[in-house]
Amino acid sequence: MLKRTLILLVLVATAAAQSKKPKSPAGVVNSAAPAANETIALKGGKLLTITHGVIENGVVVMQNGRITAVGGAGTAIPAGAKVVDVTGMTVYPGLIDSETHLGLTEVSADRMTNDELEASDEIMPHMHVYDAFHAETALIPVTRINGITNAIVAPASGDTLPGQDSFIQLAGASATEMLTVRDIAMPLNFTGQQRRNQNFDQAKFPFTRMGMATQLRQAFIDAQDYEQKLAAYEKKKSSADEKERDRAGAPPKRDLKLEALLPYLHGKKPVVLAAEQPNDLLTALELANEFHLKVILNHVTHSASLLDKIAATGLPVIVGPIYEQPKESERYDAVFSMPAKLAKQGVKIAFASYDAHQSRNLPYAAGYAVGFGLPAEEALKALTINPAQIWGLDKDLGSLEVGKLGNVVVANGDPLDVKTDVKHVFIQGQEIPLVSKQTQLRDQYWK
Predict the structure, then answer these.
(1) Exposure pattern of 188-227 as b/e (b: 16+ CB <10 Å)?
(2) Which residue has the higher pLDDT, 154 or 15?
(3) Which pLDDT belongs to residue 196?
(4) Are 361 and 411 in contact (CB under 8 A)?
(5) Beta pairing, strands 271-275 & 295-299
(6) SS3 of 138, please?
(7) Residues 29/432, Cβ–Cβ less than 8 Å
(8) Using only C-alpha atoms, what is the Rg of the chain?
(9) Which of 111, 242, 216, 235 is nearest to 160 (CA)?
(10) Contacts 24+ apart (CB under 8 A), 104-112
(11) What is the pLDDT of residues 357-377, one digit of tens each?
(12) What is the average per-residue pLDDT within 433-442?
């Protein structure tokens, strides 16, 4: 009986932290409430537009999934619009998590619910996150309740090339609706975690940094060779000379692994290059430059000594995890202050949770960075417009602007403050019920 009581107390406490509403709507947690064509006006709130300053006592109008008006108290509200009074509230664009494992894991201790990493090979660029993405995961409603409306879903970092990332919207009737960009980027992990020297019986995996670099270089060269052979075949096959066409022979055997690398070798899509320490970062950057890869840097957690070099590259950086302990040779605040130092150098930064179960804590990582020198305005940009620009989606996301998607959050305070509660979440102009498994259990057992 005591054990059952303790479990219920934990569930109630978890739900209360997510939402302090006394009751939550029933039904499927991933469904949206109003019709897509309903016009909604948020009136009276403090608008954090991100790109055009702060508007006190403002108005945001959403129709057909997009923002149609943003302005002060005098902004016209269309006849028949559903007006939501948000006086005293803060209104801001939905937050973007730049690396999660949402939809790839459910219960960490249950291997059958984990699709984060394919351990059979370190080079798996032809693996697609969208093939495993589970739209019905209970973790998405939990994340959404705290104002995160979009996220990158990435494989775990145990492989050097573990597959391709997807960009999702955290609402939709199915995976098809939620997967907005299926292959948006490819992780290239060079942190040392990929050295499988704990399994000496698996000799095909590299045990050293030089082994990892060599394996990656060979994969890129093989992809270039594959493309050249394919081009030579196509040239012969399309020749006006019949004899030349006969000499074409059979086409090269299709190789999905090498084929998947080609858009990245041509710079059509970005490679998310993850390195933490200076020597790893330098080696990985040299490799990326050798093959002219379009790079987004990731982590650089313990590379404060290379700040000038990082800034000189002009590359954006996904920062975190911010709660990591410093190395023995570093100051106590080396990791905590890294976002502030990067921003001061003019580097465009974005925050990531690198998780699924803790993705809801994304805004607090940014708030923590503010405590160690990052300006609050820059921290909020690193959750909104910066990631939207980094991922090439700023036409639709990242700020409160006319024409952008109606991904809007209403909260009762500073988005970066742990004491703030989110009161409304809109995704594509539709209000999403603030319901999760925990709030449902809270309501069921509250009395």
Answers:
(1) bbbbeebbbeeeeeeeebbeebebbbebbeebbeebeebb
(2) 154
(3) 67
(4) no
(5) parallel
(6) coil
(7) no
(8) 24
(9) 216
(10) 104/129, 104/132, 104/133, 104/134, 104/153, 104/155, 104/156, 104/356, 105/139, 105/356, 105/357, 106/134, 106/137, 106/138, 106/139, 108/357
(11) 999 999 999 999 999 999 999
(12) 91
Q: What is the dihedral of CA 222, 226, 231, 233, to 10 degrees?
A: 140
Instruction: Please state the length of the chain.
Output: 447
- How far apart CA 207 and CA 192 sit, in angstroms, is 9
Give the whole-angstrom CA distance, residue 147 versus residue 138: 16
Report in angstroms the alpha-carbon separations of 446 from 8, 15, 182, 443. 9, 11, 41, 5
Residue pair 50/376 in contact (Cβ under 8 Å)? The answer is no
**Rounded distance, CA 46 to CA 91, Å?**
6
pLDDT at residue 81, rounded to an integer? 94
**Would the pTM of this model clear 0.85, i.e. be above it?**
yes
Distance CA 390, CA 164 (A): 16
Query: Can you list the domains of the chain with their CATH numbers?
Result: 2-92+433-445 (2.30.40), 95-397 (3.20.20.140)
- Per-residue DSSP letter, 305: G
218, 222, 224, 230 alpha-carbon torsion, rounded to 10°: 180
Of the candidates 41, 22, 42, 25, the one whose C-alpha atom is nearest the C-alpha of residue 33 is 25
